[in-house]
Protein backbone atom coordinates (compact mmCIF):
# COMPACT_ATOMS: atom_id res chain seq x y z
CA UNK A 1 0.00 0.00 0.00
CA UNK A 2 2.76 2.41 0.86
CA UNK A 3 4.47 1.78 -2.50
CA UNK A 4 1.23 2.36 -4.45
CA UNK A 5 0.61 5.57 -2.54
CA UNK A 6 4.12 6.78 -3.27
CA UNK A 7 3.64 5.98 -6.98
CA UNK A 8 0.42 8.00 -7.08
CA UNK A 9 2.13 10.93 -5.36
CA UNK A 10 5.00 10.79 -7.87
CA UNK A 11 2.54 10.92 -10.79
CA UNK A 12 0.46 13.71 -9.27
CA UNK A 13 0.86 17.06 -11.07
CA UNK A 14 2.32 19.87 -8.96
CA UNK A 15 -0.14 22.35 -7.56
CA UNK A 16 0.28 26.06 -7.02
CA UNK A 17 1.43 28.58 -9.63
CA UNK A 18 0.60 27.79 -13.25
CA UNK A 19 3.41 26.60 -15.48
CA UNK A 20 4.64 29.33 -17.84
CA UNK A 21 4.46 27.81 -21.33
CA UNK A 22 7.01 29.29 -23.79
CA UNK A 23 4.72 28.72 -26.77
CA UNK A 24 1.97 30.81 -25.14
CA UNK A 25 4.48 33.56 -24.34
CA UNK A 26 5.43 33.65 -28.03
CA UNK A 27 1.76 33.77 -29.02
CA UNK A 28 1.16 36.65 -26.61
CA UNK A 29 4.05 38.63 -28.12
CA UNK A 30 2.70 38.05 -31.62
CA UNK A 31 -0.81 39.05 -30.54
CA UNK A 32 0.57 42.16 -28.85
CA UNK A 33 2.21 43.38 -32.05
CA UNK A 34 -0.90 42.62 -34.11
CA UNK A 35 -3.14 44.51 -31.69
CA UNK A 36 -0.63 47.36 -31.42
CA UNK A 37 -0.49 47.76 -35.21
CA UNK A 38 -4.29 48.04 -35.32
CA UNK A 39 -5.00 50.15 -32.23
CA UNK A 40 -1.82 52.03 -31.28
CA UNK A 41 -0.14 51.92 -27.89
CA UNK A 42 -2.57 54.27 -26.11
CA UNK A 43 -5.61 52.13 -27.01
CA UNK A 44 -3.84 48.81 -26.58
CA UNK A 45 -6.17 46.35 -24.84
CA UNK A 46 -4.62 43.47 -22.92
CA UNK A 47 -7.96 41.67 -23.01
CA UNK A 48 -7.93 41.73 -26.82
CA UNK A 49 -4.26 40.71 -26.89
CA UNK A 50 -4.99 37.71 -24.69
CA UNK A 51 -8.01 36.76 -26.80
CA UNK A 52 -5.91 36.89 -29.99
CA UNK A 53 -3.46 34.50 -28.36
CA UNK A 54 -6.24 32.15 -27.26
CA UNK A 55 -5.65 32.87 -23.58
CA UNK A 56 -7.10 34.79 -20.67
CA UNK A 57 -5.83 38.11 -19.36
CA UNK A 58 -4.38 36.30 -16.35
CA UNK A 59 -1.84 34.66 -18.67
CA UNK A 60 -0.37 38.12 -19.29
CA UNK A 61 -0.23 39.13 -15.64
CA UNK A 62 1.42 35.85 -14.68
CA UNK A 63 4.30 36.92 -16.89
CA UNK A 64 4.38 40.72 -16.63
CA UNK A 65 3.10 43.00 -13.85
CA UNK A 66 1.93 45.73 -16.23
CA UNK A 67 1.26 46.62 -19.85
CA UNK A 68 4.47 48.63 -19.91
CA UNK A 69 6.58 45.66 -18.74
CA UNK A 70 4.87 43.46 -21.33
CA UNK A 71 5.57 45.95 -24.12
CA UNK A 72 9.15 46.57 -22.99
CA UNK A 73 10.07 42.89 -23.04
CA UNK A 74 8.39 42.40 -26.41
CA UNK A 75 10.33 45.28 -27.99
CA UNK A 76 13.59 44.33 -26.36
CA UNK A 77 13.16 40.78 -27.60
CA UNK A 78 13.07 41.85 -31.26
CA UNK A 79 14.89 45.16 -31.26
CA UNK A 80 18.44 43.82 -31.33
CA UNK A 81 17.70 41.18 -33.97
CA UNK A 82 16.25 43.58 -36.56
CA UNK A 83 19.70 44.34 -37.99
CA UNK A 84 22.89 42.47 -38.83
CA UNK A 85 25.99 43.82 -37.06
CA UNK A 86 28.18 40.77 -37.68
CA UNK A 87 31.59 40.77 -39.36
CA UNK A 88 31.45 40.34 -43.15
CA UNK A 89 35.09 41.16 -43.80
CA UNK A 90 34.96 44.81 -44.81
CA UNK A 91 33.14 48.03 -43.92
CA UNK A 92 31.26 48.02 -47.22
CA UNK A 93 30.13 44.42 -46.74
CA UNK A 94 29.11 45.11 -43.14
CA UNK A 95 27.05 48.13 -44.19
CA UNK A 96 25.37 46.18 -46.99
CA UNK A 97 24.45 43.33 -44.65
CA UNK A 98 23.09 45.79 -42.10
CA UNK A 99 20.93 47.52 -44.71
CA UNK A 100 19.64 44.28 -46.20
CA UNK A 101 18.54 42.92 -42.84
CA UNK A 102 17.03 46.23 -41.79
CA UNK A 103 15.19 46.42 -45.11
CA UNK A 104 13.58 43.04 -44.41
CA UNK A 105 12.45 44.29 -40.98
CA UNK A 106 11.12 47.60 -42.33
CA UNK A 107 9.12 45.78 -45.01
CA UNK A 108 7.15 43.83 -42.40
CA UNK A 109 3.62 45.31 -42.29
CA UNK A 110 3.40 45.23 -38.48
CA UNK A 111 6.78 46.88 -37.99
CA UNK A 112 5.96 49.63 -40.49
CA UNK A 113 2.86 50.50 -38.48
CA UNK A 114 4.34 50.11 -35.00
CA UNK A 115 7.62 52.03 -35.32
CA UNK A 116 6.03 55.48 -35.91
CA UNK A 117 3.72 54.88 -32.95
CA UNK A 118 6.68 53.88 -30.78
CA UNK A 119 8.45 57.12 -31.68
CA UNK A 120 5.34 59.17 -30.84
CA UNK A 121 4.83 57.30 -27.56
CA UNK A 122 8.42 58.01 -26.63
CA UNK A 123 7.55 61.71 -26.46
CA UNK A 124 4.38 61.15 -24.44
CA UNK A 125 5.48 58.49 -21.96
CA UNK A 126 8.73 58.82 -19.97
CA UNK A 127 8.75 55.13 -19.10
CA UNK A 128 8.61 54.18 -22.78
CA UNK A 129 11.34 56.71 -23.53
CA UNK A 130 13.56 55.13 -20.87
CA UNK A 131 13.01 51.67 -22.31
CA UNK A 132 13.72 52.83 -25.86
CA UNK A 133 16.84 54.69 -24.75
CA UNK A 134 18.15 51.47 -23.20
CA UNK A 135 17.41 49.48 -26.35
CA UNK A 136 18.94 52.16 -28.57
CA UNK A 137 22.09 52.21 -26.44
CA UNK A 138 22.47 48.43 -26.81
CA UNK A 139 22.00 48.59 -30.58
CA UNK A 140 24.42 51.47 -30.96
CA UNK A 141 27.00 49.59 -28.94
CA UNK A 142 26.80 46.79 -31.49
CA UNK A 143 27.11 49.37 -34.25
CA UNK A 144 30.20 50.84 -32.59
CA UNK A 145 31.82 47.41 -32.58
CA UNK A 146 31.23 47.26 -36.32
CA UNK A 147 32.93 50.65 -36.74
CA UNK A 148 35.79 49.61 -34.48
CA UNK A 149 36.38 46.56 -36.67
CA UNK A 150 36.67 48.89 -39.65
CA UNK A 151 39.14 51.06 -37.72
CA UNK A 152 41.15 47.94 -36.94
CA UNK A 153 41.22 47.12 -40.67
CA UNK A 154 42.45 50.68 -41.37
CA UNK A 155 39.27 51.45 -43.32
CA UNK A 156 38.33 54.26 -40.95
CA UNK A 157 40.31 56.81 -38.98
CA UNK A 158 40.65 56.29 -35.20
CA UNK A 159 39.28 59.82 -34.67
CA UNK A 160 36.01 58.85 -36.37
CA UNK A 161 32.87 60.53 -34.98
CA UNK A 162 31.10 57.25 -34.19
CA UNK A 163 27.84 58.83 -33.06
CA UNK A 164 27.47 60.70 -36.37
CA UNK A 165 28.49 57.58 -38.30
CA UNK A 166 25.77 55.54 -36.59
CA UNK A 167 23.18 58.21 -37.37
CA UNK A 168 24.20 58.08 -41.03
CA UNK A 169 23.98 54.30 -41.04
CA UNK A 170 20.24 54.18 -40.40
CA UNK A 171 18.79 57.58 -41.29
CA UNK A 172 18.38 57.32 -45.08
CA UNK A 173 16.72 53.90 -45.03
CA UNK A 174 14.47 54.91 -42.12
CA UNK A 175 13.30 58.06 -43.87
CA UNK A 176 12.67 56.26 -47.14
CA UNK A 177 10.86 53.20 -45.79
CA UNK A 178 9.21 54.35 -42.54
CA UNK A 179 8.64 58.08 -42.96
CA UNK A 180 7.78 57.99 -46.68
CA UNK A 181 6.52 54.37 -46.81
CA UNK A 182 8.54 53.62 -49.96
CA UNK A 183 9.81 50.20 -50.90
CA UNK A 184 13.54 49.89 -51.53
CA UNK A 185 15.00 47.56 -54.15
CA UNK A 186 18.20 45.63 -53.69
CA UNK A 187 19.81 47.82 -56.36
CA UNK A 188 18.91 50.86 -54.28
CA UNK A 189 20.30 49.17 -51.17
CA UNK A 190 23.57 48.65 -53.04
CA UNK A 191 23.78 52.32 -54.04
CA UNK A 192 22.79 53.40 -50.55
CA UNK A 193 25.53 51.26 -49.00
CA UNK A 194 28.14 52.90 -51.22
CA UNK A 195 26.90 56.37 -50.32
CA UNK A 196 26.79 55.61 -46.58
CA UNK A 197 30.27 54.14 -46.61
CA UNK A 198 31.61 57.27 -48.29
CA UNK A 199 29.77 59.50 -45.81
CA UNK A 200 31.05 57.55 -42.80
CA UNK A 201 34.61 57.76 -44.07
CA UNK A 202 34.21 61.55 -44.08
CA UNK A 203 33.10 61.68 -40.45
TrEMBL record:
Q: Which UniProt keywords apply?
A: DNA-binding, Transcription, Transcription regulation
- Residues of the HTH tetR-type domain: 22-82
Pfam families, per this entry? TetR_C_11, TetR_N
Does the keyword DNA-binding feature in the UniProt annotation?
A: yes
Could you confirm whether the keyword Transit peptide appears in this record?
Answer: no
Q: For this protein, what is any one GO molecular function term? A: DNA-binding transcription factor activity
DNA-binding region residue numbers: 45-64
PROSITE patterns for the chain: HTH_TETR_1 (PS01081), HTH_TETR_2 (PS50977)
PANTHER family (alphabetical): HTH-TYPE TRANSCRIPTIONAL REGULATOR RUTR, TETR-FAMILY TRANSCRIPTIONAL REGULATOR
| Name of the molecule in the record | TetR/AcrR family transcriptional regulator C-terminal ligand-binding domain-containing protein
